[in-house]
Amino acid sequence: MGSADSKLNFRKAVIQLTTKTQPVEATDDAFWDQFWADTATSVQDVFALVPAAEIRAVREESPSNLATLCYKAVEKLVQGAESGCHSEKERQIVLNCSRLLTRVLPYIFEDPDWRGFFWSTVPGAGRGGGEDDDENARPLAESLLLAIADLLFCPDFTVQSHRRSTVDSAEDIHSLDSCEYIWEAGVGFAHSPQPNYIHDMNRMELLKLLLTCFSEAMYLPPAPDSSSVNPWVQFFCSTENRHALPLFTSLLNTVCAYDPVGYGIPYNHLLFSDYREPLVEEAAQVLIVTLDHDSATSASPTVDGTTTGTAMDDADPPGPENLFVNYLSRIHREEDFQFILKGIARLLSNPLLQTYLPNSTKKIQFHQELLVLFWKLCDFNKKFLFFVLKSSDVLDILVPILYFLNDARADQSRVGLMHIGVFILLLLSGERNFGVRLNKPYSMRVPMDIPVFTGTHADLLIVVFHKIITSGHQRLQPLFDCLLTIVVNVSPYLKSLSMVAANKLLHLLEAFSTTWFLFSAAQNHHLVFFLLEVFNNIIQYQFDGNSNLVYAIIRKRSVFHQLANLPTDPPAIHKALQRRRRPPEPLSRAGSQDGASMEGSHPAAPAEPGTLKTSLVATPGIDKLTEKSQVSEDGTLRSLESEPQQSSAEDSPATEEPSQAWREQRRLSSASASGQWSPTSEWVLSWKSKLPLQTIMRLLQVLVPQVEKICIDKGLTDESEILRFLQHGTLVGLLPVPHPILIRKYQANSGTAMWFRTYMWGVIYLRNVDPPVWYDTDVKLFEIQRV
């Protein structure tokens, strides 16, 4: 039968279903078989031939027929899994049912009355068909999930058969050990099966159905406690699924082994179409959804208030019941870590390759899923995090993240990407090794819209952060605290900043310490505290190599004197806020001496009008996101969180932290106009007295007269002579006693768990356009907005 006939017959069946007012018996095979037995329809056909309005109409007007359709389609998948799908006809039925369920499920989920349907047992559907069998009948959802799992390891359908002859010796699907059929070499599996286009396509269709099953989460509004467990994921990742381990490994290895270049040969993808990419995308999406697990609620605190997750032994408590999370947290072999890290770094760097060797490789689009996966690996597997930081390989992750942050900074549809990039860097910056690695020289290869500089990866990070703060989209303002916290965390380890980066840091201090900015929101002064902490760390711990920064501080010394003499009387405060009425840009680029951008780079572009984006829940403030630890003499960290907090939010200069009001934080207009908040003299005095200026003032007191003397003696206007003097200068014994280094480490909390859930599902919603699985259904987890 031709494909046109086949589509026509399928369409006729759909029309019959929507027009029948009477229930059709489940035993009426002649009717139900029309949907899957004699048709060869692609998933795109199914979406076109089963319109949304008709699914909803059946749901409202003849619910029993929709129920029977779902039940019969699941039954066919179960039969296929039982029999092992040996004939072409059986495989076609499985694919047709799979496509049909992918189409219908979202409409089941969007209606709260239907939500329990898949978790109920179907009368008479007991395993043996007898009446007394109903007690041990499985809920429909469980039967469906187990069938999908079996079908994903079905010889000659989704995996290579190991048998030589096909005569009567088909492998028994029940005794088959799926660990021998893992899809790709990598973690825990050495054999790389021959690529097979058909198997890849069949896996992809089944994974799409699996992802659709999991997507019930999209139809529940964001819950503040985030504790709601997705029952589909919970069952699929439990010991009930005998394929959990090989499937987890197959998904992880398929993603990490993928090489879009095409066997390492540039431009190869132009000759061979790459059918692996859709499977890899689907695998990455299924993987991150199965790993949606709130680690804040499952880590077990030990005596000293830290969690046992960082212990380097295998005597960890029995991990979470979600086996995917459990397996992920237990990976420990160096070669496995190397394989995962190399794979993710290769894929994240792919869009960067595009920019300096255009078209040399296929450009992949799933970098957001990869960033979520990398986040989960670091969050759930501390040994992996330490491995990443053990060598300079971490820079192969850092550079792509900085590239994405810089590229997306003006685009409001990519605010989520900006957040996850910053979250990953915040997590990494809590470890000393990250700061140390940043000292590696950076050779500019990737054209980026940033000033040209010669220096290290630390310079790159500071220059990109400066660019985000001064020319990013206004929705990024809640991230300023995070960006500066990262710089504070790495600052004690930065051996020598370039002049470009030093000037950028001072430009930020200048911008953040203007009186109108300091007085126009309750939290703005925290940014100044963070920057002063950066300067103090570098002066106290890395003075020797940082003559560029010392010189920049001397040149801009007036900024520090202005801060020390900040006016606190009401008329001055009022005057500063009046000045704000003429609306300049929040942070001008004036005085930032940007210099030329790199050759071949494009300015960061705003979102195209009409671009779809999904809303995100607010992220917790930096005080909730991090916990403060003090670095002891021997380099170990001591948590400061367990000490009783003083009732006042303003406790000490070093721990000056943003507080609850962080969302109101940067109402750059004077808040008093809207009657919300207005600065008082007492308020300004309360934090002005804590500004940690002693170290810098002492430095200026000692060095400025010496520098001025050189200039007068030699009639100098030449920087190099002054820099040479500063390089050989020393402040030993002249500075105050070094303060202890404070690190603000990321800590898991339910607020970020909920943010990750909404972000992840938003990405999946927007990326699945062919077919548009969830488009135009009533999702509740986020709103879909047009730019």
Automatic annotation (TrEMBL):
Q: Which domain of life is it from?
A: Eukaryota
**Classification via InterPro entries:** Hid-1/Ecm30
- Pfam families per UniProt: Hid1
Q: Where is this region: Disordered?
A: 571-676
Entry GO CC = Golgi medial cisterna; Golgi trans cisterna; membrane
Concerning PANTHER family, the annotation shows: PROTEIN HID1 (PTHR21575:SF12)
The protein in question is named: HID1 domain containing
UniProt organism field: Capra hircus (Goat)
